[in-house]
Design brief:
Layout (H helix, E strand, L loop, with lengths): L2 H4 L1 H18 L3 H7 L1 E2 L2 E2 H15 L14 H26 L4 H11 L6 H8 L4 H29 L6 H30 L1 H30 L1 H6 L1 H28 L4 H12 L3 H12 L4 H29 L12 H8 L5
Antiparallel strand pairs: 1-2
Helix pairs in contact: 2-10, 2-15, 4-9, 4-10, 4-14, 5-6, 5-8, 5-12, 5-13, 6-14, 6-15, 7-8, 8-9, 8-13, 8-16, 9-10, 9-14, 12-13, 12-15, 14-15
Length: 351
């Protein structure tokens, strides 16, 4: 992890501040940016979100899924946390704290129903977890999110009686997951064929990874410049949505800690399970919120708060896991990770 990435939480906060300052000091900036759209989809936000999603979907490694049979327990536990525990906790807490604030409820649901496929590779490496398991899990999440995300969000919002445009939800999933996934698969094959796998992993992936972080920060500047005045007038709304997000992290992380201990996992498998099982795919959550409600909506700002809190929490979880390991919290025997996964994870690191 580069020094820049270690302070990602700080850059996120600074970009939020820059966006708000721009909204107050540059006359007409929000109207100008908002006018750059096609059928309600913001062109600058769409470009930034695509650049955020594409590098993440390069992590898909179908060959690694064959290793599921070798050590299925932690993979199954992570899937259970991602697709059952986290979404249920999200909808329950959203209903408890945000009743009457439909867009914020949807924001929490979008975050809770989207398991991470990218940054967990970095957190897992920092925590010295099982990197082979990390690659298998993120590849599996990339596939399952294609089929489960839209039905799960539709179900959870339907339970709350919140009307959403399910067609637009499906289109946003297709545009922001399906299209980058297809382009990722095609470009990866073509580039490896032309330049070789070593060049792809050591040169191309780090470059697009840096572009993704830049796109993420630019997205925040645009979001908060568009909605700066609304944010200043209703700052309490962002504090309000932070309550279920933070409590949700505590509950899901706590559940995964106890689950990995109860089932006798070793540290390397346990910490990887906890990290992946407790994180969210904030890129697709932001993309979906923007597509359904617009760039200046509470839903869009609510999903960005998920990003704001997740970065420091995941870093804290890395240190918590190592502290618990030293105290003997997990007693199982570690399984050595294979070299292919290690190479794939190292390729996500920026120079």
């Amino acid at each position: 992890m580069s020094k820049f990435e270690k302070y990602l939480a700080l850059w996120v906060a600074l970009c939020m501040v820059v966006g708000v300052v721009l909204s107050q000091t540059v006359p007409g900036i929000s109207e100008t940016i908002d006018s750059w759209q096609i059928r309600g989809i913001s062109i600058p936000i769409g470009i930034c979100l695509f650049l955020m999603m594409y590098p993440a979907l390069l992590n898909l490694q179908l060959a690694e899924l064959k290793k599921l049979k070798d050590n299925p327990k932690p993979i199954l536990m992570t899937l259970f946390s991602n697709w059952i525990v986290a979404p249920l906790v999200a909808v329950l807490l959203a209903n408890l704290f945000l009743r009457g604030n439909e867009q914020l409820i949807v924001a929490v649901i979008l975050l809770g129903a989207s398991p991470c496929t990218a940054m967990v590779l970095v957190w897992g490496r920092l925590a010295e977890g099982n990197q082979e398991q990390n690659v298998v899990n993120t590849s599996l999440n990339t596939i399952t999110i294609m089929f489960l995300y839209v039905p799960l969000v539709s179900l959870l919002t339907g339970i709350q009686g919140i009307p959403i445009d399910r067609g637009l939800l499906a289109i946003s999933a297709l545009v922001f997951i399906g299209l980058p996934l297809i382009l990722g698969i095609v470009s990866k094959r073509l580039l490896i064929r032309a330049k070789g796998e070593a060049w792809f992993e050591s040169v191309y992936r780090p470059i697009v990874g840096k572009i993704a972080i830049g796109a993420l920060l630019m997205t925040l500047v645009v979001l908060f410049s568009l909605n700066g005045q609304v944010l200043l007038d209703h700052f309490d709304q962002l504090l309000l949505v932070s309550a279920p997000l933070l409590l949700g992290f505590v509950i899901v992380v706590g559940f995964n800690l106890l689950m990995t201990r109860f089932f006798g996992l070793a540290y390397k498998e346990a910490i990887t399970t906890i990290i992946i099982g407790s994180s969210s795919h904030f890129e697709i959550a932001i993309a979906t919120a923007v597509a359904m409600y617009g760039v200046g909506s509470y839903a869009a700002l609510g999903t960005t708060m998920g990003l704001f809190w997740e970065v420091p929490i995941m870093l804290g979880l890395v240190y918590l896991g190592k502290a618990l390991m030293r105290r003997g919290f997990w007693t199982g025997k570690d399984i050595q990770a294979g070299q292919p996964a290690k190479v794939a994870v190292e390729a996500t690191e920026s120079d």
